[in-house]
Amino acid sequence: MRPMKYTVSIEIALPRERTARLLADPVHLPKWLRGLVAHEPLSGGHGQLGTTSRVVMQMGRRKFECTETITRREPEDLREIPNTGVVHFDREIVGEGMWSAVRDRLTEADPETTLWESENEYRFDGFLMKLVGRLVPGAFRRQSQQHMQDFKAFAERGEDVREAAD
């Protein structure tokens, strides 16, 4: 089976530096990352280059556990973003039957708006995950877009996905 690849994007009505700092702050993850049960660094500091974390997501009745490794973070200090620079957050995610690479880019659409683009690549291993990848490839794209929309609602209006689920 060939890798599944797609790109999703969204505009956030906040300056790039503020958007990047909110996106990178582990305290805020449960507020916008729908289904997050746990995100625990196993080595390194949360969000830092080379850090490996245990991630547990709840999807319906099913829990999915994976390992996330930060493979790129530029610039390292999010308070020092050059005016013309792009903020990069790249990570590799490995779970049962699945490998994924996510390459997030934050660019300045204008001084008060950030464009968040996310390139996603999935490779599936094992019968069940290959079947899921073939039968419902759009579900992965929809989930990525939902996470972006949830982040936008959190960043712009302070909405918390946990409150919406209650």
What keyword list fits this structure?
166 residues; alpha+beta; Alpha-D-Glucose-1,6-Bisphosphate, Chain A, domain 4; seven-stranded antiparallel sheet; 29% helix; globular; START-like_dom_sf; Polyketide_cyclase/dehydratase; Polyketide cyclase / dehydrase and lipid transport
Descriptive overview:
By secondary structure, this protein is an alpha+beta fold. Helices cover 29% and strands 43% of the residues. It has one domain (4-157): 2-Layer Sandwich (Alpha-D-Glucose-1,6-Bisphosphate, Chain A, domain 4), CATH 3.30.530. It is built from five helices and seven strands. The protein has a seven-stranded antiparallel sheet. The chain is globular, with a radius of gyration of 16 Å. The model has no long low-confidence stretch (mean pLDDT 90).
Structural class assignment: alpha+beta
Major beta sheet, strand line-up: 1-7-6-5-4-3-2
Q: Give the overall silhouette.
A: globular
DSSP strand count: 7
| Separation of the first and last Cα atoms | 39 Å
InterPro entries: Polyketide_cyclase/dehydratase, START-like_dom_sf
Organism: Streptomonospora halophila
Protein name: Polyketide cyclase / dehydrase and lipid transport
